[in-house]
Design a protein that fits this description.
Elements (H helix, E strand, L loop, with lengths): L2 E7 L3 H16 L2 E3 L8 E6 L4 H20 L4 E6 H5 L1 H7 L5 E3 L7 H11 L3 E3 L3 H4 L2 H9 L15 E5 L1 E2 L10 H5 L3 E2 L2 H13 L4 E5 L7 E4 L2 E4 H9 L6 E5 L8 H9 L6 E3 L7 H7 L5 H14 L4 E8 L6 H14 L4 E5 L7 H5 L6 H24 L5 E9 L1 H6 L8 E7 L5 E7 L6 E9 L4 E5 H5 L2 H5 L12 E2 L5
Parallel strand pairs: 1-2, 1-3, 1-22, 3-4, 4-5, 5-6, 7-10, 10-13, 14-15, 15-16, 19-21
Antiparallel strand pairs: 8-9, 11-12, 17-18, 17-20, 18-19, 20-21
The structure holds S-adenosyl-L-homocysteine, iron/sulfur cluster (SF4) and FE3-S4 cluster.
């Protein structure tokens, strides 16, 4: 009988990609995916350590499957990813029924480790990772040979894929666990990336999102050839069938002009930059070790907008970081008011054991103050998002259609029996756009005229929908979006 695997993923896009690769490898070993934990032979939890909340989510998920282990002692329960890397002891203490703890650098070994658990009935722990325990070449070898095992059924959609161009992080912001959970920064050889992109496009992929913790720090040197992110993008731009290229996340200090020129000049590159600033106060930025000032960030933002007219920019913020006074917080409010980000992800500071901030600075902002600052900042951002969205009304934008909107998926809404559903997708500036159209548009790029806007969504009329007669609209849809096989929590938890 075919073995079944269940997987839950929390955390960033890196984790979504890692889950895809793990499932790809398990399928090659005869496994099928299930979305029902009770029928799974292997249950995997791909985890995130970036904030305490993400860790608690995993512990409660593990609590929910404990009884399955009693019912079926042969089931294998595995914890993968960043928490596995950081907290293997804690996991084994809090959830002793976990059979497998596999760090971010060892994911390629999951099929082998599952077999070992079954053979030996002993827990398997595999967590060595570049920085402390192994050489860089070992990390590189594991991911270079690993990434090509792709599994289209695990992607956000069949026509969108993540491509890792860099692993790890060397920036060591004082609040952040990622340098220890993902190891040293490594850029992947461009040839490997180009080959993977071609392979993805051959499989029907139209949009690739290049991933790195500080993606614009990408540089690969071989002999006297130096490949920067701008060169990497240029080298894949003309792959026939590829329609869109995105990249996340950018580090403000590494936003170079060659990259901005590439964003402007190359038509397939989305006109959207995610460049987290974290705080508007220089003292806080210094304690965070972000290596720039608020003035530097403002200049960088002006340069982005000058070199790429009309570009959308979004940011991340941490509120209530150690020593953040009301005055420092107001400097962040000023920056958000002024910067006109398309959107911002705002997080309350969560102290992480083992980081420099945890060692050096007390977590001295009370939780209710963090909460209030979070809400205040969000209110300013939401007003800016509303204005940004309103400014799009009347424009015609190109939308890559991702699938039925949540509302449509829930209610199977079929307008007037004409086969028109509420569809959703993204514009070239990363705006979410909702409009009515037939299912066959899923995976296509359509022109949509924007007629209305909320702070989070644009609403419009697809040019093509007007031409679609009832007969044509009733045709069976050739593209069927996949049911999500397992749980995702996106974006960052
Ligand atoms: N590498 C990316 C993202 C890292 S994690 C970057 O550097 O931009 C994503 C976001 O989580 C960060 O941008 C930061 O805003 C937030 N974050 C990281 N550590 C955190 C912590 N300890 N507490 C709260 N938020 C945190
Ligand atoms: Fe963390 Fe800073 Fe690296 Fe981003 S750049 S992953 S916030 S250490
Ligand atoms: Fe991503 Fe969370 Fe790890 S944000 S890199 S999954 S700690």
């Amino acid at each position: 009988m075919t073995q079944k695997v269940y997987i839950e993923t929390v955390g960033c896009q890196m984790n979504v990609l890692d889950s895809e690769l793990v499932i790809g490898a398990l399928r090659k070993n005869g496994f099928d995916l299930t979305d029902t934990p009770a029928e799974a032979d292997v249950l995997l939890f791909n985890t995130c350590s970036v904030r305490e909340h993400a860790e608690e989510k995993t512990f409660s998920a593990l609590g929910r499957v404990q009884h399955l282990k009693r019912q079926n002692p042969d089931a294998v329960i595995g914890v993968l990813g960043c928490m596995a890397q950081k907290d293997q002891e804690l996991i084994r203490n809090r959830a002793p029924y976990v059979d497998m703890v596999v760090g971010t650098g060892q994911l390629a070994a999951v099929p082998e480790l599952v077999a070992k658990v079954r053979e030996t009935r002993a827990p398997q722990i595999a967590v060595s990772l570049g920085r402390a325990d192994a050489g860089r070449h070992e990390v590189e070898a594991s991911f270079v040979s690993y990434d090509p095992a792709r599994d289209p059924s695990m992607r956000p959609t069949p026509f969108q894929a993540f491509v890792r161009i860099q692993i790890g992080c060397d920036k060591f912001c004082t609040y952040c666990v990622v340098p220890s959970t993902r190891g040293p920064e490594q850029s992947r050889p461009p040839e490997h990336i180009w080959q993977e992109v071609r392979q993805l496009v051959d499989q029907g992929c139209k949009e690739v999102t290049l991933l790195g913790q500080t993606v614009n720090s990408y540089v690969y040197e071989a002999g006297d050839r130096r490949t920067r992110l701008s060169d990497l993008i240029a080298g894949m731009h003309d792959v026939p069938g590829l329609e869109r290229i995105k990249f996340v996340t950018n580090y403000p200090k590494d936003m170079t002009d060659d990259l901005l020129h590439a964003v402007r000049e190359l038509p397939k590159v989305v006109k959207y930059l995610h460049v987290p600033v974290q705080s508007g106060c220089d003292e806080v930025l210094k304690r965070m070790k972000r290596n720039y000032t608020a003035a530097y960030y403002r200049e960088m933002l002006a340069r982005c907008r000058e070199l790429v007219p009309g570009v959308s920019v979004s940011s991340d913020f941490i509120v209530g970081f150690c020593g953040e006074t009301e005055e420092s917080f107001q400097l962040t409010m000023d920056l958000v008011r002024e910067a006109k980000f398309k959107n911002s992800f705002i997080f309350k500071y969560s102290e992480r054991g083992g980081t420099k901030a945890a060692d050096r600075y007390p977590d001295d902002v009370p939780d209710d103050v963090k909460k209030r600052r979070n809400n205040d900042l969000l209110a300013v951002q939401n007003e800016n998002s509303r204005l940004d969205h309103r400014a799009q009304v009347g424009a015609t934008v190109e939308v890559l259609v991702e699938g039925p909107s949540r509302l449509s998926a829930k209610t199977s809404r079929d307008r007037d029996g004409a086969g028109l559903l509420q569809l959703t997708g993204r514009s070239m500036k990363d705006h979410i756009v909702v409009f009515d159209g037939p299912m066959r548009l899923v995976g296509e790029t359509v022109r949509v005229q924007i007629t209305d806007a909320s702070p989070f969504t644009l609403y419009g009329t697809a040019e093509i929908a007007e031409r679609v007669g009832v007969e044509e609209a009733r045709e069976p849809a050739p593209v069927v979006p996949m049911a999500k096989p397992s749980k995702f929590s996106l974006p960052l938890v």
